[in-house]
Amino acid sequence: MVSGRILTPGGWINGSLEFGERIGRIIEGPAAGKHTILPGFIDLHVHGAAGADIMEGGDSGAIVARTHARHGTTSLLGTTMTAKETHIRHALQGLAGVIAQRPAGGARMLGVHLEGPFLNLKRLGAQPPDVMVASLELVESLDAIAKIRVLTMAPEVDGHLDLIPQLAARGIRVQIGHSAGSYEDGAAALKAGATGFTHLFNGMTGFAHREPGMVGAALAHAEYAEVIPDLQHVSEGALKVALRAIPRLYGVTDATSATGMPDGEYGLGSQRVFKCAGCVRLASGSLAGSVLTMDQALRNFVGLGLDLADASHRLSYYPADYLGETERGRIAPGAWADIVVLDEALRPVAVYVEGEAIDPH
Length: 361
Prior knowledge:
The protein is of the alpha/beta class. The protein is 27% helix and 27% strand. Strand 10, helix 4 and strand 11 form a beta-alpha-beta unit. Helix 5 (183-192) packs across helix 6. The longest helix is centred in the N-terminal third of the chain and has 16 residues, at 85-100. The two termini are 20 Å apart.
């Protein structure tokens, strides 16, 4: 049982929360202490943490899941980089075991976000140049190794637009990202069944009043899009524009192996990246993922002026609904007991993943 101010789908309740693996009763009444109780965070774009990179395969997924759990992330998607097909398969084989069985002390790995390799060479960002043209056969063969829940694609690449409805029919959320496409390309992809945008503003054509670009397509038409709220990838002003335009804009970390580590050199797939001054960059100086954690994302959203319930929804409820995970991302009887307990500074004092207590320290 935990006690405090509890965020439920119906609003705030003062009282206590009983749970095992799943949430039992929510008991209204005087709350002991000044803790805030939120649904655990759900991060749909995670490359690494604690020196471990998802592309390394092996036990890297477990290390990543345990590290982010200490920051209130109770479920996540292991996210790939663009790489040779054999390297992607190796990474997925490592993720398959973590997806099948949640590591003790770790967040639940809900599946894979296949961020590469179906991207546009002109908008790689920190991705290496090992792009491929997608085919249904290739995607299905990768999905057979580890379940793909989200797939990033540049829809203007020949053949990709026609593939979107086939992937959507298989339950894969197709996101537009690392794209040099136009506004019209983005609108056509959404009409074909794409459902979101990968790290909005980054790795796509920007907005201009006569060429609204892929960003314009998102602002005009998207119901969902992910954004990195580290205040480095996207400015406060641009975040406020997106928050006003996209009803269910949700936060992701795009965290790398440098997350939770001292300044220095780390791996991001086949790339070498450098952590310094709270961000991660390639040797060229380009941003290359982040060192963001979801509890800091919450504090950043609140710092932008969002009320706490709205900020929470953008880190739990919305990403859960985007994936169709109706038993996560909310504190309600029968839902999984994925819970983060915060102090007055919005820092985790307790985390529970499917009822298991995780020490956040």
